[in-house]
Design a protein that fits this description.
Strand content: 25-35%
Largest sheet: 6 strands, antiparallel, barrel
Strand order of the largest sheet: 3-4-5-8-7-6
Oligomer: single chain
Distance between the termini: 31 Å
Structural class: alpha+beta
Shape: globular
Bound molecules: zinc ion
Amino acid sequence: MEGQIESVDVQEAAESSPCSVEPCGERAAAEVDTRLLCLDHFLSVSFQELQSRHERLRGQECDPAVTAAFNKFLAEWARQAESLVEDARFADQQTKARLREALLWVSQAGKSLRRSPRLATAVPVWLRREDSRQTWEEDTWTSMLSRHGAAFVCRHPVEIGGTVVLTRKDKGSRAAAHVVYSRMDSEGRRQIGVELIDRDDFWD
Ligand SMILES: [Zn+2]
């Protein structure tokens, strides 16, 4: 694909230039929307911009031009994040985990804009956590869905990498999943993202 060849060139050019966030000066690792960014600022400043643009789009009637521009930004961001995950020079597992977590958010954000109405993705589930130190179960519902994952409001603290069991209230089917992120949303609720283990038909 010609887009990929282009992004390699961009990345090579970016690597010899400094991050555009003042007064950072770190070597740039990515370029999004003609802005050069170091890895840290790619994951903070640029990712936050992505999230706030997504939030604004969700709150309004979709203007196709604005949505298209956002989707382009989203795709560009994801392509750079994917190549950074692949890059052996960033062996730091924590950074790779943050990139993967961001990519899961990106894939769900893209879907949530395409899907209408968003309520169609609200599936009621029991979320259960079992281990020797803490066992709990709560009623919740999905706030976002993807083939291999989902996001939920969760009242219990969970650690990234932990395993939870989901049971669909409508069908009774169960699946285990890994927690890939846990963060507070703008309304102060904990949102967790999970990736299903060995299942891709759970949500039909
Ligand atoms: Zn920087």
